[in-house]
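Database export, one record per block. Field names are fixed; values are copied verbatim from the stored entry.
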Amino acid sequence: MEKVIVFATDLHGEIYQYEKVFEVAAGKNVKALVIGGDIGPFLSVIGDIAGYQKDFISSYLIPRLKDFQKKTPKDVFLMMGNDDLKMNMEALEKGEKEGTFKIINQKVYPLGGKYIAGYSFVNEAPILIKDWEKSESLIEDDLERLSDKSDPRKTIYSMHAPPIGTNLDIIFSGDHVGSRAVREFIEKKQPYLTLHGHIHESPRMSGSWKDIIGETISVNPGKGSILVFGLNDLNIMEVMTV
């Protein structure tokens, strides 16, 4: 039976959505779970966002991942996204040291004959939190260094920012707001597969959760959806609504 990967992004601390993701990821043929950024709650009102996110990581996410691993051992890879405060990385790294999961931002790990790599940063935009924002030129440099760590054609890249000018980066106004550097990286390196998030509404705006750049399939399942795909057979690919 083909081993599959479960991918979800932009969960934003919503426990109901996390629980659905864990339910799908517990399947017998699932090789790994990948969580692609914006893991913690985001408060749009004035409040202790940092404390709220830290408490979520320490009190729910890490214990829940431990429980998940205990009941159904899988590889788990995750990273922060642009709405996650970097000051809480220490809390996340504490969980990583306990062997429950691996943080993949700007790192590469083997995954069943392939590789998994992550990149949390997004291109500059009028967003509140700037911890994970960089200029296109700096993103370009980072991705070039990341590509040296594995063969891109055998690597699944979880990049929070989607490539510009695709089905994956359209906001409610109809504008494309993705990253130029991410798109150029895909065009140049032709990765095995790229996974994205950040623009919650894009699949609804474009009518599609995937696009093809050269020979590379790129996917943004959107908020509230779960992507399941074959590790060695990308013809096996579907999105489920939470």
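Remark 1: The chain has one domain: 4-241.
Remark 2: The domain at 4-241 is CATH 3.60.21.10 (Purple Acid Phosphatase; chain A, domain 2).
End of record.
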